[in-house]
Design goal:
The protein is α/β, with parallel strands linked by helices. The protein folds into three domains: 169 residues, 3-Layer(aba) Sandwich (Rossmann fold), CATH 3.40.50.10800; 106 residues, NadA-like (Rossmann fold, 3-Layer(aba) Sandwich), CATH 3.40.50; 90 residues, NadA-like (Rossmann fold). Helix content is 46%, strand content 14%. It is built from 18 helices and 14 strands. The chain has a six-stranded mixed β-sheet with strand order 2-1-3-4-13-14, sandwiched between helices. The radius of gyration is 21 Å and the shape is globular. It starts with a helix and ends with a helix. The model has no long low-confidence stretch (mean pLDDT 92). The chain binds iron/sulfur cluster (SF4).
Length: 400
């Protein structure tokens, strides 16, 4: 039996590999987590997860931010867009989504009934501060004051907010979409939400795009959402863990390092705003997807890279390129929602077929689309909400 085969059947061999890899590539990010005993437990659970996934005919779609053991079980490891695309392309009858809820909900709204989508917790534990910080009542009042106004909503948002928006955007294309909306609907007020850092950066970029096209716009027509709501401040709370000068400190400590910005989650948008303000020098920074980062780091003469994102991504980068040094802006700034995925919850989800994200029709429980209904086994998205969201995501994908 080869080592590769024995790893798949012998938990002790797999545990030894986990111990080495997790401590080598992520020991600083998860101090004291990966003991021999814990690695053996994870290895045994890995084999059980693989067996259950096969039995349930499920593919495991894993985001970069859950802990390293999730990277090791993934049928697909990726950012939220890549995972949504995977669900559509894999044509698997079932996908177990290991990320946060809004990502699984978006994937389900795109996939429709063709694929059953499961998450291993509810929308509260698999949350996001941008979702929790969106004040629906305030948004409705903004719409009443600006009946012709346009909402441009970042993908990190709940299904209801997406459904009442005019455009949905990613961090890569928000500026282009603002510029598009401004030229298609001249004179109309635009509200960019729910991340104020992303909003201000993208507003400035959109104005630049419009100026290059000789299109004149009053910048006051583009408003950025900055409400504090539910204890959140219109930004990814992981920023607040970073500390506002963490990137400057990292640059002083590693003057030779290239700065890599990963535009996946709200946790990168504060650094993006520092780039815009010139605090991070443009010539020392790149904005790239994980695959682009790996290609860039492979061919770069630089040996050191400061990575601005949730530190979960670093395990993937370090494992792919063990000879290069990837430095987190903050090793402690983990997203607690992403980290609430655990192997125990995934095993329970696979065994008991819970929590399934479903599109419901004429549902007696879903009387208020602003509130996500869930019971012991299912989390509901009204189909009429999904039908409003899907074409907007398709338009979003048409912008590069
Ligand atoms: S990292 Fe920030 S933006 Fe991403 S899921 Fe967590 S709280 Fe939300």
């Amino acid at each position: 039996m080869s080592i590769k085969e024995s790893k798949m059947t012998d938990p002790k061999v797999l545990a030894a590999q986990y111990y080495e890899d997790f401590n080598r590539f992520a020991g600083d990010l998860y101090p004291n987590r990966y003991s021999h005993i814990f690695c053996l437990q994870l290895a045994e659970q890995t084999l059980e997860i693989k067996r259950l996934a096969q039995e349930k005919n499920s593919k495991l779609a894993v985001h970069y931010y859950p802990p390293p053991e999730f990277h090791e079980i993934a049928d697909k490891l990726g950012d939220s867009l890549a995972l949504s695309r995977f669900i559509n392309e894999a044509k698997s009858p079932r996908v177990d989504f290991q990320a946060v809820f809004f990502m699984a909900a978006t994937a389900k709204m795109l996939a429709g009934d063709a694929t059953r989508v499961f998450v291993s917790g509810g929308p509260e534990e698999l949350g996001c501060s941008l979702v929790f910080g969106t004040d629906h009542i305030w948004l409705e009042s903004w719409k009443r004051k600006n009946p012709e106004g346009l909402l441009i909503t970042y993908i990190n948002s709940d299904a209801y907010t997406k459904s009442i928006s005019d455009f949905i955007s990613t961090s890569r294309n928000t500026a282009q979409i603002i510029a598009h909306a401004a030229t298609q609907y001249p004179g109309k007020k635009i509200l960019v939400l729910p991340d104020k850092f992303l909003g201000y950066v993208m507003k400035a970029k959109a104005v630049e795009i419009l100026e290059k096209k000789d299109f004149s716009i009053d910048p006051d027509l583009i408003e950025v959402y900055e409400q504090s709501f539910g204890g959140f401040n219109a930004c990814c709370y992981v920023h607040e863990q970073f500390g506002h000068d963490a990137i400057e400190v990292a640059m002083i400590e590693h003057p030779e390092a290239v700065i890599m910005l990963h535009p996946e989650c709200g946790c990168f948008s504060l650094c993006l705003s520092k780039l815009q303000q010139g605090i991070i020098p443009y010539e020392k920074a790149i904005i790239a997807s994980t695959e682009q980062m790996i290609k860039f780091a492979e061919s770069s003469e630089s040996e050191e890279f400061i990575v601005s994102t949730e530190p979960g991504l670093l395990y993937a980068l370090r494992k792919r390129l063990p000879d290069k040094k990837f430095i987190p802006v903050s090793a402690e700034a983990h997203c607690r929602y992403m980290k609430s995925n655990t192997f125990e919850k995934l095993i329970r989800s696979l065994k008991e077929d819970r929590m399934e994200v479903i599109l419901c029709d004429n549902c007696k429980f879903c009387t208020n689309p602003k509130v996500t209904y869930r019971d012991e086994r299912t989390i509901h998205i009204p189909r009429e909400v999904a039908n409003l969201v899907k074409p907007k995501i398709e338009i979003m994908n048409s912008f590069q």
